[in-house]
Amino acid sequence: MTRRLRLAIPAALTVPLAMGIGSAVSAQELPSYYPETYGDIVEASKNEGGLLIYSNMAQYNWQPVIEGFNALYPWIEVSTLDLDSDEVFTRYYAETSSGAETTDLMISATMDGWLNFMNGGHALDYGSPEADQLPDWSKLQPNLYTVSTDPMIMVYNKLTVPEEMQPKGIGDLVRIVNENPGVFDTKLTTYNSAQTSFGQAIDLVYLREHGDAAWDQLDTLGPLSRTEVSSGPMLAKIASGEYSVGYFISGIVFFPKLNDPTNAQIMGWNFIDDGTPLFMREMAIPKEAGSPNAAKLMLDYILSHAGQTAFGVGGLTPYREGVKKEDVAFYTYDSIKEEIGEDNILLIDYDPALVADLDSFVERWREAYQQK
Amino acid sequence: MATGALPTARPASGFRFDRGLAIQSLVALITLGLVVLPLLPVLYQAFLDRPLYDAEAAFSIGNFARLASTPRFGGIMLNTAYFAVLATVVAQVLGVISAILIGRTDLPGRAFFGEMLLWPLFLSHLVLAFGWFTMYGPSGYVTLFVKGLVGVEPWNLYTVTGMGVVAGIAQAPLAYLYCIVSARTADPSLEDAARSVGANPWRILVSVTLPLMRPAIIYGTIMNFVIAIEMLSIPLVFGGPVQIELFTTYLYHEVFGQSTPDYSLVAAASFVMLALVIGLMALQGRLMRDSGRFVTVGGKASRPRRFALGPWKWVAFAGLMIYVVFGIVVILGGLILRSFTVLLSPLMPIWNLFTLANYEVIAAYPVYARSIWNTIAIAGIGSLVGTVLIAMIAIVANRSAFPWRRQLEYLAVLPRAIPGFIAGIGIFYAMGLFPPLGWLRNTIWLLMIAYIMRYLPTGFGAISPALAQLGADLDRSARTVGADWWRTSRSIVLPLLSPALFSCFALLFIHFLKEYVTAVFLFAPGSEVIGTTMLQFWINGDNGPVSALASIQILITVVFVYTARKLLGVKIYG
Fold first, then answer.
1. Pick from A254, B9, B33, B220: CA 20 to 30 A from residue B263's CA?
2. Which residues of chain B have pLDDT under 70?
């Protein structure tokens, strides 16, 4: 969905640009494929309050993006709130239903959360001028845009796990624990899929790929595993030796930890050779946004080459073609594809069939992960 | 001058504007509003089949049936009961023994122990839980150290038993606090009577001293049981990885683990918890009433004689020392040490690990630093407002002719039965129920309101007894020279109360500094507090910044408590 270009003289050009501040974006800075009316959005954003974003990311992921964004639009004060993937929606529903002010832009990675949100018609109708520059697989639904594609990986403690026991994938890990009974008791960690929709999505995509064979694997790993509701504690506890191996850990939480030499000494990692799930982190502007124009500018910036690169610098995994691995902190979609091959990428693609029967999945998962 | 104003000099024809009554009514209404604000929505939501803001919502009692049929609900209840009982027993045994040793025997270092035992009360459970995790968790410093010596995992805190013991040790100081007062003020003549008929010290202790402490023990037991039921931090930190769920963690995940939480179910569960706690409080009231007033504060002519422990005093000394060192010093010291290191492990030499990075992170991001200032602001302003309100409630309830003063007193102590968790959920719902309140949502004022509501009973408990000790003659003499109720209260009663008011302020300040459970549901961008930021760091696995924030919180507390107690002479906890 792209907007038809209006051929009238855009209002932005009739406004004198001698305002000093507020003219950081001039027409020539925008790419040629932006509509001429884009200046209206920019102008309108000046009359809005700040931009409030609910996301499931940390401050350090945001920092380069906000800096880049403010270089273009210095008058927009951006504040972000780090929440759980689910909490982004919980808060939104609680606030909008009571008529309170809510967020202007939502970024999250939870399948049922986004499916409910989009089916409920909560998203503002907005066709980004950047949409045509993005790969088709990244556009799941109109008005819903992809921020990044973040890999789920294996991480292990190099000090406690000898080299021949460092797993390359899930199947490999099953083989290793079977060959070394007792060694990995309570030493494995992964997501608690009964309590987090994030964990559910990862497991469901892996199960879709491998079917019952995957359940056999999880039945072996489950009793040895302790579960967490996010990757942070898994990594902290792998580093401290409480756990030895973590599987399906969020790469973007892990990679920044390698900047610390102590952590780099302690922890090693692999992509998952029998299928690396890539979590598509999505964004949309809610209809109730108080600053819809500022939100549109941010959404477009995140999708632009500069914004994708900035999120890459902040540690996420940009997927827009043309973003170079050397320009970002860790990986891009293309560089992951190059490293493991497209066949080994399991895209968490928000297919409604995946979450069709969550209850029985959760029950089955609890069975597999029963603490012995 | 307004035209058409009422003539002021009217004959007393029945109705006359009474300043005192107006103030009393206002105080009563504010209190009612505060207490009802969180309760009403929870009760309402518990009987609705959809979220209360949904226009389609209809009355239903199905939520309770659904709750009961939730798989695992029975297990959650059993775990919670076991955890709460164990924590209470551990806390009471440790607390009563320490109170008797410190209050009634010739134990060496009594003053030091008495001081040390109070400190955990000033700190939040969140800080204590992180401290335990850092030192005694599966990869804790002490755990690994002992494991290195003996070769096997010495203990496992990731069990309901482990959690119960941790919670019990964390709560022991509260049990100690309730008992120490009654131990110190025991009537010596009763013990002397026992002595005169030849009872040995042990016999006196069992037959006279302990029974005299019974009200304090019962009171402390029920308080600790309630606190254990509503504890979130310890079950979250130690139960999460092994999927052990207690009542609070179940609710927490029910609300935060789903993109569309089942509010009806959560409210029904909260309702059950509320009924349970109110029932316990009522039981406490009954037990206390039946036991009458044991404590007789006599003149200072005869102080209770201390029991001579003889050589046993060194055994007692060692026992208490172990508790203080391993239950308090190691935990807090370890947490502070952890905040200055990359990680803490006996497997790595510590001097390679020193860093200031954990503090730099907090300084680098305005959001994190803001949570510290917010906490201080809420504690400062909130305690001031709270103290004023509680002082007003106390004088209306104890020193006025207000017709509903008894009811007002009940209202002021009712929040003790409202777990912080439910207060948070309730106010969260209230925002949905009363849209005009919406502007409060993202502000620290909302947290202040919630906190003041939560700690009305705490403050009331600090002021009310002091008020009871002021002779009523003072009021009367003021009234005879023509002062009305408000003038009397303002010029005579409140100034005389000032030591109690300071204590109330200090108590509220400390509680507001600690409180996080209520805030979990209510904080928003701009109204973060230290506790919620710590939880976020914890969930992100940033244990370094967690311990840095915890250390900052400890520092603020130490500075405040030291200033208040030592420099200003304010009494906090006796």
1. B33
2. 1-17, 52-55, 186, 257-260, 288-304, 346-348, 432, 435, 437-438, 573-574
Strand extents, DSSP E, B94-192: none
pLDDT at site B567: 73
What is the rounded CA–CA span in Å between residue B512 and residue B157? Answer: 29
Q: Give me B123's structure tokens.
A: 């700190």
Closest-CA residue to B177 (of B233, B103, B75, B270): B103
Could A196 and B257 be called an inter-chain contact, meaning their C-beta atoms sit closer than 8 Å? Answer: yes
pTM score: 0.79
pLDDT the model gives residue A107: 93
Contact B256 A86 (CB under 8 A): yes
How many angstroms away from the CA of A203 is the closest CA of chain B? 16
Kindly write down the DSSP assignment for every residue of A281-320, as one continuous string: EEEE-BTT-SSHHHHHHHHHHHHSHHHHHHHHHTT----S
Residue whose tokens read 């599966």: B138
- Closest residue of chain B to A253, computed from CA coordinates: B540
Q: Which residue has the tokens 């969930």?
A: B539
Q: How far apart are CA A321 and CA A342, in angstroms?
A: 15
Closest chain A residue to the Cα of B544, Cα to Cα: A236
- Per-residue pLDDT, averaged over A160-181, amounts to 88
- pLDDT tier at A15, thresholds 50, 70, 90: very low
DSSP strand pairing (A267-270 vs A145-157): antiparallel
Q: Per-residue confidence at A2, pLDDT binned at 50, 70, 90?
A: very low
pLDDT given for residue B435 in this prediction: 67
**pLDDT score at B128:** 87
CB within 8 Å of chain B, chain A residues 54-93: 58-59, 79-82, 84-91, 93
Q: What is the pLDDT at residue A248?
A: 92
Q: Does A149 touch chain B (CB under 8 A)?
A: no
Q: Which residues contact A238 (CB under 8 A, 6 or more apart)?
A: A155, A156, A157, A189, A244, A245, A246, A267
Contact A226 B242 (CB under 8 A): yes
| DSSP-derived 3-state class of residue B56 | coil
pLDDT digits (tens, 9 = 90+) for A58-78: 888 888 999 999 999 999 999
Distance of CA B527 to the CA centre of its chain: 21
- Asked whether the beta carbons of residue B240 and residue A229 sit closer than 8 angstroms, the reply is yes
Contacts of B280 (CB under 8 A, 6+ apart): B222, B225, B226, B417
Q: Do residues A283 and A302 touch, judged by C-beta distance below 8 A?
A: yes
Residue A345 DSSP one-character state: E
As a whole number, mean pLDDT of residues A112-124 equals 88
